[in-house]
Amino acid sequence: MDYKPRLKEKYDKEIVAALTQQFQYKNKMQVPRLVKISINQGVSGAITDKKMIETGIEEMSMISGQKSVMTKSKKDISNFKLRKGMPIGVRVTLRNERMYEFLDRLISVAIPRIRDFRGINDKGFDGKGNFSFGVTEQIIFPEINIDKVSKMNGMNITLVTSAPNDQEAYALLKEFGLPFKNQK
Questions:
Q1: Cα separation of 161 and 173, whole Å?
Q2: For position 171, what pLDDT does the model report?
Q3: Which of 15, 102, 111, 175 could be a cystine partner for 11, CB 3.0 to 4.6 Å?
Q4: Mean of the pLDDT values across residues 109-118?
């Protein structure tokens, strides 16, 4: 038995057909697809407390299901007491099955747990078919034990698509089930 993530199956069976009809594609390969998901988290207190980076790596690895890596500063900034090479954040890039699994958990479990949620703002498109948005608390993910959280950290999530423009990327993400605020 071959395992296939739920959203990957939905993409193959429903989304390709819907987008082909909507944008009049001549070939299945023209249909935009999700390429990767990048998750970044800046850990502000990491300059003074080294354990915060380790906690960030551990939490991000639990959320994504893949080992995350530490990001280091590229230059000195004296106002922030920052030296080149100091750890300042955590990042992870998801592709293939893990990407679809994460997106499924994000849409069906994590986003509904956001307090006072009225939809994702659709202003996060970059003009080339990629969409970025921020999450203010890491505790919306069920993998995180709220009792063990010492500091609330938000994260930036970027969905990279193969769409040539924002309209096609918006249609793709809408078909996946991302709850946008302003319906176009």
A1: 9
A2: 83
A3: 15
A4: 74
